[in-house]
Write a structure and sequence with these properties.
The chain contains eight helices and four strands. With about 210 residues, it is mostly helical. The chain has one domain: Rhomboid-like fold (Up-down Bundle).
């Protein structure tokens, strides 16, 4: 059965899930920078490789709330807010939350089996890339203004380019320290979920 969604009559710039995710990620980052508490959160909350004695199943969720630096945090939270607010307003909070966490968990599993290596992983990037592909599928004809170069590009092409870059980087630069296959994993899981749920995107006259 297909679901046809239409935007809510009242658009919120900070819908509930987005607002709470921003707050929790911010608090977790500051906690991670404090002595002792930060070490505890990293050891028990980061996603350790599957064969590591430190791996625990809850890390498939907790790793999404920890970040390796202020740049990592700001990039993920900015992307989450920019693209996620439209998706949460379009789908509703409940479906958005389910989608976000499933993308993050799926990204972690794919990363562990394909590109995990021996280092622990942190960051919301897998879930955020799931949000990115959702934006491209729900609003394919909307324009996104790039910063470098400063040109507009349709969302569907923006997502395709990002996916291609992540695939190329994952294959050609496996030791870069960036979880490219987690990013791809979030996009793959997101694509499957949207198709499985039968969600249709924004209606346009084009």
């Amino acid at each position: 059965m297909e679901n046809n969604y239409s935007p809510n009559s009242s658009f919120s710039v900070f819908p509930p899930a987005i607002k709470n995710l921003l707050i929790i990620n911010g608090l977790a980052f500051f906690a991670l920078t404090t002595p002792q508490l930060g070490d505890f959160l990293f050891v028990f909350g980061a996603l350790w490789p599957l064969g590591s004695p430190r791996f625990e199943v809850w890390q498939l969720v907790t790793y999404m709330f920890l970040h390796g630096g202020i740049g990592h945090l700001v990039f993920n939270l900015f992307a989450l807010w920019i693209f996620g607010q439209a998706i949460e307003n379009f789908w509703g909070t409940k479906r958005f939350v389910i989608y976000y966490f499933l993308c993050g968990i799926g990204a972690a599993i794919i990363h562990m089996f394909i590109g995990g290596g021996g280092a622990p992983t942190v960051g919301a990037s897998g879930a955020v890339f799931g949000i990115l592909i959702a934006f491209g599928m729900m609003f394919p004809e909307r324009y996104i203004m790039l910063l470098i170069p400063p040109i507009p590009i349709k969302a569907k092409y923006f997502v395709m380019i990002f996916g291609a870059i992540e695939l190329f980087s994952g294959v050609m630069r496996p030791g870069s320290g960036i979880a490219h296959f987690a990013h791809l994993g979030g996009m793959i899981v997101g694509f499957i979920l949207i198709k499985y749920w039968g969600i249709k995107g924004e209606r346009t006259n084009q």
